[in-house]
Input
Amino acid sequence: MERKTRRFVLIGGALVTATIVGVAGVLVWGGGAAGSTEQPVEPVVDSPSSVAQSFVNKLFSADATAAAALTDAPEPAAKAFAATRSGMGTSAYQARLLVVPTLAEGATTTEIPASVTWTMPNSAALKYDVKIGLQLSGTTWKVHWTPALVHPQLTEGGSLVYRKALADGALLGRDGKPLVQGSLPEGLYTTITGAAGDLKGTDGWEVGLSNGTAFVALDGKKPEMGEKLTVTIDPARQAAAQAAVDALPQGAAIVAVDPATTEVLAVAQNKALAGTNPFVGRYAPGSTMKIVTAAAAMEAGLVQSGTAVPCPARATIGTRTVNNAGFGHESLPFHTAFALSCNTTFGELGLKLPATALPDMAKRFGLGADWDMAGASTNTGKVPPATGDQQVENSFGQGNVQASPFGMALVAATVASGRTPTPTLLRGRVGTPGDVGAAPPRAALPALRQMMTEVVTSGTAKQLAGFRGLAGKTGTAEAGGGTAHGWFVGYQGNVAFAVFVENAGSSQSALNATAAFLKG
Output
């Protein structure tokens, strides 16, 4: 006797009616004649809808093999499910069967549509429909494996992926690569990053189909781009400067700038130079100050490059007794007196200059001026007005004149370029000048360049004569307590620099560090 029942199935929140036809109390056998010995036909264990529901419940769970086991190709299915689970990260998956079609008697295949929703980490939702194909395998319904079970457009080997679309904003080095901690002295890195601020924009996101290197976006939001800001430090120059100062037992610093742009190329100091930094630490500049004094004397008409000048080994100038470093000449050209660093020559010239001559000229070279420079606080030095004995001492870098390594690097850059410096550490954020002098003395610059070249070729820095195109000025500055600081200030090609060594006793350590820096 045939029995019909109506079953009400709740699938994904929808009430679906299915009709089941059977024979009450009768075991169904396969077809055949009476008295046949054929085995009875075993009933189908599950319905297509129950298998489909179990499949979507287990899909993208922690154990992807549970859903894959319900398919007719468990191995590739498990691999694909695991790839999408990984690609979607913490996104939440939900699927709802839309309708269960009536299964015709004897049917061995069917298809059930389902609605899929992925809720992504940013709370956005990706929605789409899939079709779950099923086929009867013996007495069990199996989900037919195809990548379209994951997404209708997915192909073999692909996966669904959610990822952030990163905002492109960064603090970059001169080489275009992101600036990382450790590439600069710690204090400088901290001030630069503080001045730069938060350059990063707002990240976006995207979800799509990934297969190898190909990615097809399905939805997303573009990032709001941030700012790219370049630090002018040259990695190679910085490394060379750092190695040069680290090789010295005394406190030491090197600052290098590009003469054409006055972009800062390197700022290095060793651990022995404590309590300050090369941008602000001020010391007596010694004979490097003679660059400024020579320019002031030539502009005042007191002397020209070839003028014969006295250079006694010892002289009383005003009430001060001035000595040279163990040498003297009755007369020699001014450019030679500069190359040999004759204190007595410059003391005599300094006494004849007006009180404001040295401070005014110094500012024209960037010394004693200041800048509001993004990325670092600066103090180039101090050259106060003076007369008499104070002016004598100031003229060869003693007395009450002071300079930072940064300030003396600007002096060298001004000689090389012939332009008023505009120091920059963050490209695009040029330093704002404060109390900067007029343009450098154009008439005196050729003579200064020639004299600074002579310092290297035959003067006090002749140990550096092998460095082609190098020009500069040595300096030894009494620092009290019987000690003296050593300096070398110069330029070569597109690099102008100042080397300072604390309590070195002479300029020799500064010359050695210069050689190491230039070789590096």
User: Anything to note?
Assistant: The first strand starts at residue 2 and ends at 11.
